[in-house]
Every structure is written in C-alpha cells, then in structure tokens.
Description:
By secondary structure, the protein is mainly alpha-helical. 76% of the residues lie in helices and 0% in strands. The protein has 12 helices and no strands. α6 runs parallel beside α9 (157-170) and α9 runs antiparallel to α10.
Amino acid sequence: MTTEARPMLLRADRPVTVARRWSLLRYVPNPKTTPFTFGYLIVLLGTTLLLEFADPAVTTRLLELSSTDAHNLGRRPLTSLLTSAIWLSGESWFAYALIFAVAVAPLERRFGARRAALVFFAGHVVATLVTELPVMALISAHVLPHSAGHWLDLGVSYGFFTTAGALVFLAPGYVRLLALAATEAFIAVIWLSDDPGSLGSVVTLLGHAFAAHFGLLVCGPWLRERIRRPSPDSAG
Length: 236
C-alpha cells in the first residue's frame, strides 16, 4: 500500500465510525424521540439529588408521606399513589436510567409518549392496589399487626415491569419466550437479594410479578390492537 492510499482509507473509515456512534446514540432517551422517558428520568434525578443533599429529617418525612403502604393508602390514597413513583430511595439513578432505556424508551418510540405513560402509570397504580389492599384488609381483620401498614413502599419498579411485560408480548417468536424467562429471573433475583422472608419483600415480589403479567396479558394485547386498528389521522 502506498503512503498516499493509507490516509485515504483512514478518511473513508471515519464516516462509518461516526455513523455507528450516532446509531447507538439514538437508543439513548432524549427529549425529542422519547420525551416521557427522558422527562421522567430528569424528575428521578432531581429527587435523587434531593435525597442526597437535603436535610435528612425533611427527606424522611417526604418519603413517609409518599409511601403507598397500607396506612398511607387509607389516609391519603391519591397523594401516595401520585408521589410514590418519583423516588428512588437508596437506589442508583444510573441503574434506573439503563433500565428505562431498555424497558420504557423502546415502548415509547413505537407507540408514543401518551401510550407509554398510560401503560407505565396504569401498571404502577393497579399493582400497588392489588398488593396493598389485601394487606389493609388483613390488618383490619387483625390477622396482621398494625406495624405491617407502616413500611416504606416507594419506587418505579411496578411501572417499568409493566412496560417490560408489554414489550415481551410484542416480541416475535422465540424472542418472546427468552424475554419472558429473563423478566421472571430478574424478578426472582430482586426478591432473593432483599430479605425474602419479610412482609415487604413478599409484597414487592407479588407486585413485580403482577405488574409484569399485567403488561404481558393486558397492556401488550391492547397495544397490538392499536397497531391493527390505526387512528383515522394516522390512516389518512
């Protein structure tokens, strides 16, 4: 190879490398293609920084008011349901940024911000009620102590497991089975890494499992119908 040809080949390779980098960046949540995912991550970043730098007494009180435990759901249901999903208590924001990029952003890119938000929050609310209402009933029946209604129940995991379940349903062929197995394994790992015998861990396990299957059996089919029956505007 001549000395003149080598620089020419290097220059020809640069556009390919840049194109590959840009193709990878399009999967990163951003305000243009995935405004719901991007905006939600910004909110979670803000509350995470608040927990890190604000007065511990203030943040502890905020978490207690936002928790969707049985006690809070009975006294302030709307407030706890709306605010419990904006906190990552003791968890890494970067880990959730990766999870949102894998489980929420793909759904938003395919179906839009409004439907992605609807699936996410429907899973959060329904899974919370399905798991906490029985706890409230058992406390009222004196089967569980009143202390069982005063544990912190916070986070966004019910929402993203619902979106993950919907994506599993929409996956093709054998990919669906592999994705379902990976989701179930992830739920089991989260449970085993916590205190498996505690009431909080059991409730969270049931919430994760319900959210994933709610997305798989309810939200996924609903979204597929949106593909089969496009709106008049999109058809036009």
